[in-house]
TrEMBL record:
It comes from the Bacteria. Coiled coil: none annotated. This is KDO2-lipid IV(A) lauroyltransferase. Keywords: Acyltransferase, Cell inner membrane, Cell membrane, Membrane, Transferase. The gene is lpxL_2. The keyword Acyltransferase applies. The lineage of its organism: Bacteria, Pseudomonadati, Pseudomonadota, Betaproteobacteria, Burkholderiales. One of its GO terms (cellular component) is plasma membrane. It is found in: Cell inner membrane. It comes from Paraburkholderia aspalathi. It holds the Pfam family Lip_A_acyltrans.
Length: 283
């Protein structure tokens, strides 16, 4: 796999992206557990959508997901100049002066998140929370390549203590808290009207580190033109005294972005894996 990803880094981006899209289209035709997860999530979140529309959305999403895996080649093995050419940046905050205010960049699992985070790390010091992979060789490669421009990689098991130290040292922390990591330190808040097990780590860390919380989204641009990293204004009056309220605010922000680019959100993840007490599983 490493050799193939390295090879993709030497191909023109448009070629790599088209290869990924083509593979995704082929794989979607094969019944699989992941395809069922996509359809389950879409049916739960968009119950009023027609079957045909949901099918088109699922197919487009599957192509995006496989394409994102293939594009790990230029992201993990391309140089900083190549990444800069691929990702345009629009920021509502000043990224050149980050030491005066501890900052938590909260991202979301859109298919372009890797490209945005990698490009940001070529320009500015940052630490990133990550979830170790079950495949040790792949995990070691991912950690090495994601951190090759100086990003401090922090595993979730050690996240709070190290992240607070990083914040105190004036370095921003990037994290994503929109996946179901279990009931511990989580609350159920509605995601498109469906109770979703949602981490409270963002507000807890912001309070402990006296940090502002700045959302960001990386989207895939049409016509194989690369990506756009959008960094928004810091959330106002955040955190509050209620972690559930904070989790709901972040989820509402996410819902707005998903409605804008629904085919790019990570529907292959079992977002509703854990259910409130008494509710049956959905997968």
């Amino acid at each position: 796999m490493t050799g193939l990803l390295r090879a993709f880094a030497f191909l023109p981006y448009g070629v790599v992206a088209r290869i990924g899209t083509g593979i995704g289209a082929l794989l979607y035709r094969i019944p699989s557990a992941r395809r069922r997860v996509v359809h389950t999530n879409l049916k739960l979140c968009f119950p009023d959508m027609s079957d045909d529309a949901r099918e088109r959305l699922a197919r487009a999403h599957f192509c995006h997901v496989i394409r994102s895996y293939v594009e790990r080649g230029p992201q993990w093995f391309g140089n900083a100049q190549a990444l800069a050419r691929l990702v345009e940046v629009e920021s509502a905050i000043d990224l050149t002066d980050m030491e005066g205010q501890p900052t938590i960049f909260v991202g979301f699992h859109f298919v372009g998140i890797e490209a945005g985070c990698m490009m940001y790390s070529t320009r500015h010091p940052v630490a990133s929370l990550y979830t170790p992979m079950s495949n040790l060789l792949l995990d070691a490669m991912a950690k090495r390549q994601r951190g090759r421009f100086g990003t401090e990689m922090i595993p979730r098991s050690d996240s709070v203590r190290r992240a607070l130290r990083v914040l105190r040292d004036g370095k921003p922390v990037m994290l994503a808290a929109d996946m179901d990591f279990g009931l511990r330190d989580s609350v159920f808040v509605p995601f498109f009207g469906v109770p979703a097990c949602t981490l409270t780590s963002v507000s807890r860390m912001a309070k402990a580190g006296n940090a502002r919380v700045v959302p960001f989204v990386t989207e895939v641009l049409p016509d194989y033109r690369g990506y756009k990293l959008t960094i928004f204004e810091a959330l106002k009056d955040f955190p509050s005294e209620d972690v559930a309220v904070d989790a709901r605010r972040i989820t509402e922000f996410l819902e707005t972005q998903v409605r804008r680019i629904p085919d790019q959100y990570y529907w292959v993840h079992k977002r509703f894996k854990h259910r409130p007490a008494g509710e049956a599983g959905v997968y």
